[in-house]
Fold this sequence. Notes:
Elements: H1 6-16, E1 28-29, H2 32-42, E2 49-53, H3 59-66, E3 70-75, H4 78-91, E4 97-101, E5 116-120, H5 126-136, E6 142-148, H6 149-155, H7 166-174, E7 175-183, E8 188-189, E9 196-203, H8 210-225, H9 231-234, H10 236-239, H11 242-251, H12 265-274
Helix pairs in contact: 2-3, 5-7, 7-8, 8-12
This protein binds S-adenosylmethionine.
Amino acid sequence: MRLLGPSEIRELAERLDVAPTKKLGQNFVIDANTVRKIVKSAGVQPGETVVEVGPGLGSLTLGLLEAGASVVAVEIDARLAAALPSTVEAFAPGSALTVIHQDALIIEVLPGDPTRLVANLPYNVSVPVLLHFMEHFASIRSGVVMVQAEVGHRLAATPGSKIYGSPSVKAAWYGSWRIAGTVSRQVFWPVPNVDSVLVSFERHSEPGDEVLRRRTFELVDAAFGQRRKMLRQALSDIFGSSAAASQALEGAGLAPTRRGEELVLDDFVALARVV
Length: 275
Ligand code: SAM
């Protein structure tokens, strides 16, 4: 079994007439060591089913297959989705690969109940893709994703930091997230103009049901939509007035003068329970 290096990527792209697009966040990994680092940090086990979002030309897919996983790959680009099986057949014959040509933002069914998500995510949609997968695919227990550094730090942020925001709280609904490493820009073709990090997550049990989740996320969006404002003001539309917002906040044991950026997920959940 072989992984893809710079010359294989160049050759494949030429043969498929692929010019990477910014719109689809197409920066392909050209370095086998980086692929192995991602697969190792994800703890991929032989025989398990891993879902990969955006396999592209197959760099990471081959690394996952090399580790003995079955891979379900979701790719929006028709040419890349169509070409992946033959690339895998050439580099890793007989591997267990299922390619789904679909938008990862709207996919609702995945075969094989994947237990892990491992992906070099398209940067412009990485947070919505992650939240969509956590919401819809409960079989996913853990994973490692490569994202833009700023986004990765946001996902793993805790209250009190400037970057703590709605993605941090929403991600915490599903699991715990941490930065698992940094990745050089030079491992991509084309070289992106942002830095990348690896983020790992472990799912934990959710604090409540779907109704509570929706209510919590609505409060989170409102609180961070006006993050400099006190919560009694930021949430006044949701509760009808700032007096009603103050009452609800006090009912949840929160001072109405606090700001969203100071609250942990449990505070938002407590508030959602009194709505
Ligand atoms: N995994 C490959 C690698 O590491 O070389 C490619 C990663 S590239 C950063 C992102 C990939 O996601 C591209 O192949 C792109 O076509 C695909 N993509 C972009 N938006 C997508 C979406 N909404 N659903 C599924 N795939 C998407």
